[in-house]
Design a protein that fits this description.
Largest sheet: none
Structural class: mainly alpha
Radius of gyration: 16 Å
Number of strands: 0
């Protein structure tokens, strides 16, 4: 993604804007996590690797913050997340 809003706010219904902003935040954080972890895997410099992995961990916290807000704003998302967890448990036994 790298600094581009993944949707056109003008095409989003006013009542859905906040949910889309939160989803966009989640997408941006996941993109950052992937980028930092990939760069950490590429570098031979242990100090750089440690910093990149620490920043990736911080981004994972940000995902959680956005997700917590999204689940408050979108009850269907909350139900489906719970349903997905139950399905995964049924399929894997864990």
């Amino acid at each position: 993604m790298l600094s581009k809003i993944p949707f056109d706010l003008e095409r989003i219904k006013k009542k859905d804007v906040d949910r889309e902003i939160l989803r966009g935040g989640i997408i941006a954080e996941l993109d950052a996590i992937n980028l930092y972890e990939q760069m950490a895997a590429m570098t031979q410099n242990s100090a750089i690797r440690r910093i990149l992995l620490e920043i990736a961990r911080e981004e994972k916290t940000h995902v959680g913050e956005f997700q917590a807000l999204l689940l408050r704003e979108d009850k269907e998302q909350e139900r489906e997340l719970r349903r997905g967890g139950e399905e995964a448990k049924g399929l894997t036994g864990i």
